[in-house]
Amino acid sequence: MQNDIKNVICSAIQSKKMIQFNYEDSTRVAEPYCYGESKVGNEVLRAFQVKGESKSGKPVGWKLFKASKIKNVAVTDEYFAIGHHYGKEPVIKNSYCCIEL
Hints:
By secondary structure, this protein is mainly beta. The chain has a single domain, classed as Roll (SH3 type barrels). Helices cover about 15% and strands about 50% of the residues. The chain has one helix at about 1-15, and strands spanning about 15-25, 25-40, 45-50, 60-65, 70-80, 90-95. Strands 1, 2, 3, 4, 5 and 6 form a six-stranded antiparallel β-sheet that branches. β3 and β4 form a beta hairpin. The longest helix has 14 residues, at about 1-15. The protein is globular, with a radius of gyration of 12 Å. The termini are far apart. About 25% of the residues are buried. This is WYL domain-containing protein.
């Protein structure tokens, strides 16, 4: 199951298309930038959420999503441009598919 999620997300990253998914019982739309391993060993997605809900009350912004909580991920038809002050912050090690600047 984790590999399916990783493959869908990596495909979206490589084609620079947004994804839609369920996370903590809410639907989110995000620009996926990097999928990899967190400093504590969890598989995570680094993404810029553009719409949806958030328990933090901030539905737009940079987020680090645990892959184990991502459900029903789908690649949308909407492209995104690298932006939002993206930099390769050291929040993910052993990344599988980062966007190259």
